Amino acid sequence: MDLQEQYSRLLRYCFMKTKDRFIAEDIVQETFLRFWQSHSYRNTGKETAYLYTIARNLCIDEFRKPAYVSIEECAEPVADSRYEPEKNLLQESVREAMDKLPDDLREIITLRYVSELSAAEIGKIIGMSRFGVHRRIKEGLELLKKELT
Amino acid sequence: MTDKELKKQLKISYQISESDKQKLFVRCYERRFLQFGSILRIEMRYMGIRSIIAGIFLLLLMYAGWRTENPQISWVLSGIIPAIAVVPMTVMGRSERYNMAELESTSRFSWPFVRLVRLLILGIFSIAVLTGAGIWEAIVLRLEIRGMLLATVIPYLLSVYSGLFITRKWHSKESVYAVIAVGLVICLMPIILYQIQLMETVSAVAVKVITLLAFLAVVGECGVYMKSDEAVAYA
Asked: Which of B6, B17, B29 lies closest to A145 in CB terms?
């Protein structure tokens, strides 16, 4: 896959996890650097799963960090459309519905429909069988639809 | 809402525009995948078309000497060979001047490694030139070892040493002119020494010692050049 495309998909995944464009971007770049440094794993044919596993662990590390308030947060919010996902009522409600999903379901749905990974790849990342992933996706979509109606 | 529409909305909801940071990172990251062969090809370009033209000129000169069977051509040759060493050196100097170091350091190879590759190419080029000239001198001009060392090897080594030294010390436009000027002096030196017949007075042992010293100086300079601080290259 094209690196640019891979970067964007990984960024969407990290953005969903962290809810912060800047942190998500830092995590994505750190993920690629760590991926490059680990020569032993790269040639085993499971690159995507490995990449997402690194990103997932880095997002968890980010949550473990002590909470702090940055200077930017203290200052008046400045509208910058470049770093904001498109504002749209339907999309806003989809994101709100996603936030209400249990963590594991939200992650699976994100990996499948936002990062566009296959069920087999998702299975490798979260340690689940392909059928298990399919079942969870179906469950997640049902819950999402319920939230949206 | 249908499943299809929901899936589409999910993708759109988390769409993020591409930032400059992303573009820069992707560009730099892709360079990390450069293979050794690629870096060798990139660095080969530093030899430049001028080196190839100088090499062809040298071959033509050798051919002229072979046709005319004129032994004095060896001294003309000794004036040309150091100039060939100067040509790639000026290109290397130009690379330093335009801060190519910064660009090259974004590749997966370290800056000393890039310099090592460059020196390797210069070394292969030098060996090819010296071997060609040596074989030609031995067969056509029937020169003995002493004559070969005096006529080609010593001026060439001096030229390489001075070129590397100047390139390492100065990173300005003047360094290129300095390399050319010193190269010219080295090129003219053997011809002048031959004209005043000073070459005949130097013993074979002295010639070998001078060659060894010049060789060690070049090797030492190569080591220093390779390890010299990156900050100096960016200056």
From this structure: B6
